[in-house]
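chain below, 271 aa
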Amino acid sequence: MEQQQRVVVLIPYYENPAGLWRSLDSIGPDEPCDVLVVDDGSTRHPLDEAAAVAHCQVRGALYAVRLPRNRGIEGALNAGLEWIRERGYDYVARLDCGDRNRPGRIARQERFLDEHPDVVLVGGRASYVDMTGVEQFVLPLPADHDEILAYLRDNSAFMHPSVMFRTAVLDKTGLYPTDYPRAEDYALFWEMAKVGRVANIPKPLIDYELDPDSLSLSGRDEQLRSRLAIQRANSDGSWAARRGIARTRILLALPYGTALRIKSALNRRNA
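prediction:
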């Protein structure tokens, strides 16, 4: 039996084999991790575990959890976290189908958490790429804890597929909440920032695929409504909190294409 790694990469999967293969191919053979794929009740393209193993060249092993019915990403992630907690992994890294790790990402984040025992969550920047892999912009994110707390008033300070966190922090925060559809990560990261220090490595760690059919784009309005609810729940009445709420309301009124063009232009100017 193969020795269990300290890190496990959690990938939710639903009807997207091509995206999964791209993601698995991006995790290098020297990366010190296992991989867990949670099939969220796929019926048209159920997970082909043999093909997944062939694409997974990490130092550890690939495991699969198959849900009998579709539960949505929050349910799939929580099923994965329950499996992970039962097996005693130290760290959980996230990756989504279609998104790709930069070389050495897992080892770098594992080393960062080992060297910063007070940090419970670490993310990194992302290169936004189109479906052909051409970079559109790099999203700058705050690096240290205090900057991140301020940024959280406006939006999540983390790229969800880029994060790694300590499994033990879930004892204090619980799993992904299910009452904020499509913004479950934002809600959980807020809770993590309340119970420990959080950080971002100021380098791109992943390539984030701008897929027009992805869950985050197709459910943008629902995601923004959930973001607004999270901001209100965490508001301290400050000017920064009020500004963040107002910003989200404005985004709800803008078409996605307009918002993306503005975001891309601002990030190019600040690069």
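The chain has eleven helices and nine strands. The beta strands are 7-13, 33-39, 62-66, 91-94, 100-101, 119-129, 135-139, 164-166, 197-209.
thats it, cya
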